User: What shape does this take?
Amino acid sequence: MRPDDIIARFRVADGDSFRLKQFDPAETCGLDIEKDEAKELLQLGVKRLHDLQERLYAERRWSILIVLQAIDTAGKDSTIKHVMSGVNPQGCIVHSFKAPSLSELRHDFLWRAGCKLPERGEIGIFNRSYYEEVLVVRVHEDLLRKQNLPPEPAGEELWTKRFESIRDFEKHLARNGTVVLKFFLNLSREEQRRRLLARIDEPDKNWKFDLNDIVEREHWDDYQRAYQAAIAATATKVAPWHVVPADNKWFTRLVVAATIVERLEKLDPRFPAFDEDLRKAMAKARKQLLADGERKNGKGD
Assistant: This one.
């Protein structure tokens, strides 16, 4: 299967017929390769991403917003680490959204995300995002009380209105030059169990273990329903979701990297063009620099 076909396999641009259960967390599209070969393929993608990001940064016309959502242990952090390993940190910013602060709770649910959007020329990564407001908050509705919301809307209408606000927000970003790439790392319950056990059994992974992960695991079905609803309601042509299999980390990283590269190639960012006056000024500066070098070496006496 070609890379374009693999990317298309996991892209959801219209949520009307979306069913999360139809996406296999262990799928690899028939790829059966060794770990070293997977690393080599990823490095090719990383190198291409590096080249495209340089042009994006130099052109300063577009920005990229990468939204990463997943349940615990699905590999968001490691995906960022490996896929973005070759990108210039000057043009890439990662924001991790934790529980909102008191100040953030005094604003609408999209406000804090709007404050962290990437500038033109930058790649911004949201490790969790404004989607937490229709995921974890939906699973734990007691969190709504802290938001001191007006009485209307409420119940199911609240989530419908929030989905509408998200669609409008992402449409606004697209209209103004921010490309939104959304990834849901789709992990199976059994693979999560294995990864949590590894964090307990392997000493060098103990630091990753959080008892709250076990508590949240009890809400597995609730989260699956919340993701089903969120993706179905917010998958659009301007801001599609990519439901990426996450049981095999090597495949997750390949798909995410290939998707980002594909979108950047469609943008086709260019290095700024120089007019004739600037070229003449550069030629004059070059001549001056060469002359300075000759004088320093004693050749200009």
